Each structure stands twice: as C-alpha cells, then as structure tokens.
Amino acid sequence: MARQPEGKIEKAVVDFMKENHNIESIKLNLEGNVGWPDRMFLLPERPAWIEFKMPGQVAAPIQAYRIKTMRAVGYDVITCDEAEVAIMWLLHKMEERA
Questions:
Q1: Three-class HEC string of the chain
Q2: What pLDDT shows up at residue 63?
C-alpha cells in the first residue's frame, strides 16, 4: 500500500463526515501554539479532536503531551494514520452520544 500524505488522509475523513453525516470540522492553525490536534470535528453535544499522521508516524512529544492533557479533562482525542480508522472512531463517538 502506498503511503498517503497526511493531508490526503485528513481530507478523506473531512469529506466523508461532511458528505455522509453533515458533520463540520475546523482546521486548527494556532500560530505560536504548537502541538494541538490538527482538526476538531463538531459532533453532536461535544467536539472530537484528531491529530493526523502519515502511516507509521506517531505524535511528537509536545503533541502527546497536549493529547494527554486534553484527555485528562474529558475530551475525545486520538492520533490517527488511516482515514478508515478515523472515520470509524468518529462514527463510534456519534453512536455513544445518540
């Protein structure tokens, strides 16, 4: 399987969620604030966050710290290197809230 650039994985998830579930998302470009997840998905009742990576890559130390901090206060956040896994995770989070 060819490695997909991170942006293509992210776009596949964003497009799927918008087209199939009308779920909007926000790309986070926080200048000067590094390490935050790439995108926030506006799921019913509460957002979910995803840090997208190329296949096989892991979160940088600052990203891992931010993810741990966010989880500690109750946010749903993952690091994901496959579009299908990210989509399934988001759909699961939507089912949990239904």
A1: CCCCCHHHHHHHHHHHHHHHHCCCEEECCCCCCCCCCCEEECCCCCCEEEEECCCCCCCCHHHHHHHHHHHHCCCEEEEECCHHHHHHHHHHHHHHHC
A2: 95
The first and second tokens of residue 78, run together, are 């993952």
Q: How far apart are CA 53 and CA 43, in angstroms?
A: 21
> pTM of this prediction?
0.90
CA distance 65 to 35: 8
Q: Which of 90, 64, 94 is nearest to 10 (CA)?
A: 90
Domain containing 31 — which CATH number? 3.40.1350.10
Q: How many domains does the chain have?
A: 1
Regions of the chain where pLDDT drops below 70: 1-4, 30
What was the pLDDT predicted at 4? 66
